[in-house]
Amino acid sequence: MQISLTINHQTERLDLDPRTTLLDALRQHLKLTGSKKGCDHGQCGACTVLLDGRRVNACLILAAMAEGRSITTIEGLGSPEALSPLQAQFLHHDAFQCGYCTPGQILSATGMLEELAAGWPSHVTQDLTSACQASRTEISERLSGNLCRCGAYSNIVAAVQAEAAADARSEDKA
User: Fold this and answer.
1) What's the rounded Cα separation, in Å, for the pair 91 and 19?
2) Could you give the CA distance from residue 106 to residue 95 in angstroms, rounded to a whole number?
3) Other C-beta atoms lying within 10 Å of the C-beta of residue 12
4) Can you tell me the distance from the alpha carbon of 17 to that of 25, in angstroms, rounded to the nearest whole number?
5) To 10 degrees, what angle do helices 153-173 and 102-118 make?
6) CA-CA distance, 27 to 100, in Å (whole number)?
7) Which range (1-5, 26-30, 33-37, 115-119) has the least confidence?
8) What is the pTM of this model?
9) Residues 99-111: pLDDT tens digits?
10) Distances in Å between the alpha carbon of 93 and those of 106, 128, 143?
11) 125 or 86, which is more confident?
12) What is the Cα–Cα distance from 38 to 27, expressed in whole angstroms?
């Protein structure tokens, strides 16, 4: 079937088997290999992308389901010459070891920071009457769907917490 996908603000036309997952369309057909195929069951988060700004596991979404929606991959967040602020925090906090999970972690954290900014509570949110805080517990809970086989969790949380604090400072100035 012919589909048109908007990926990182560019429209791509593809002729795909209707059963093709978004992850396979990205990796095999468009050569966007930042999103990784880990478990292929939606349990590890290595394939996380943003779909209309919300984080999803690309291995669980059919490419055809993403037609007409905005898809953001790690390739669309920044470049080696101009990292996104969160990518820079990951680098600064040494929030990766082997790097396999890093794209999914960064995309998930990007979506998670938007959820925090919107005031969406999580399972561990203590106070539903005020803005959600980027505590270690809150971040750990919200990123629990992204596994890191190297165990870089403390540095990942530190990077996300630092970016959340930077975002809060920039909002205070605005």
Assistant:
1) 37
2) 10
3) 16
4) 10
5) 40
6) 14
7) 115-119
8) 0.93
9) 999 999 999 999 9
10) 13, 30, 17
11) 86
12) 13
Q: Please compute the mean of the pLDDT values over residues 130-138 and round it to a whole number.
A: 85
43: which strand partners?
A: none
Contact 21, 59 (CB under 8 A): yes
7 forms bridges with which residues in the sheet?
A: 10, 71
Give the pair of three-digit tokens for residue 37: 């195929």
Among candidate residues 4, 104, 146, the one with its CA nearest the CA of residue 63: 4
User: Per residue in 50-91, pLDDT tens?
Assistant: 999 999 999 999 999 999 999 999 999 999 999 999 999 999
Q: Which residue has the tokens 């990123």?
A: 143
Assign 3-class secondary structure to the chain.
CEEEEEECCEEEEEECCCCCEHHHHHHHHCCCCCCCCCCCCCCCCCCEEEECCEEEEHHHCEHHHHCCCEEECHHHCCCCCCCCHHHHHHHHCCCCCCCCCHHHHHHHHHHHHHHHHHCCCCCCCCCCCCCCCCCHHHHHHHCCCCCCCCCCHHHHHHHHHHHHHHHHHHHHHC
